[in-house]
Amino acid sequence: MADRSMMFAFPAALLLVACGAQPSDGAGRSVGDGVGTTPGSTAAAAPTPAPAPAPARAANEKFDVFWQRFRTAALAGDAAGIAAASAPKVTSHGILDSDATATLSPAQAAKAVQRLLASDEPIDSSRRTLRQVLASGDVPQREGQPLGTRVVGPVTFQQINGRWFLTDVYLED
Q1: Neighbours of 84 (CB within 10 A)
Q2: How many CB atoms lie within 10 A of CB 139?
Q3: How far apart are CA 51 and CA 161, in angstroms?
Q4: In 3D, which of 158, 134, 153 has the Cα closest to residue 68?
Q5: Could you give the CA distance from residue 155 to residue 151 in angstroms, rounded to a whole number?
């Protein structure tokens, strides 16, 4: 019977070389080209670090899922929920284009939405208030608005990196 240790020596040596390691003769002596090791050394090749995981891509959130979350928070008076649905910077506009704008934090935007919910001003052709539109459960449709944008009366929502956010509020002084 043939010496079995030799049957695996050649494939193992190829595997080691393919991985960048130097095969040895079993006594700690390199049998490669001698580069990187000294005769009699038993130094092992440094392990290759695992590649870093790819960053997760933002999911392409559907507007109706966002709308349900936003309307639930708004109707419940949940300032933290409204803030969580707001962009890091929300722009506050006056009613006229010439009115000054201001940048609001998510917490300030939540207060602005609560103020808009208290208003009895109609926001659509059916003469419903923002509170009534939210309470209806109807998901606002895009209807000629740019892709990734929904305007619902005095509030604007935009999709940013796959997620929807409250981005603009229009307030009367």
Answers
A1: 15
A2: 15
A3: 25
A4: 134
A5: 6
Residue 105: predicted pLDDT: 98
In angstroms, rounded to a whole number, what is the distance separating the alpha carbons of residues 29 and 150? 71
In whole angstroms, give the CA distance from residue 59 to residue 133.
Answer: 27
Q: What is the largest CA-CA distance in the chain?
A: 98
**Are the C-beta atoms of residues 150 and 139 closer than 8 Å to each other?**
no
Give me the residues of the chain with pLDDT under 70, please.
Answer: 1-59
Q: Is the pTM of this model over 0.90?
A: no
- Write the burial class of residue 15 (CB in 10 Å: 0-12 exposed, 13-18 middle, 19+ buried): exposed
Contact status, residue 166 vs residue 109, Cβ threshold 8 Å: yes
- What percent of the chain has a predicted confidence (pLDDT) above 70? 66
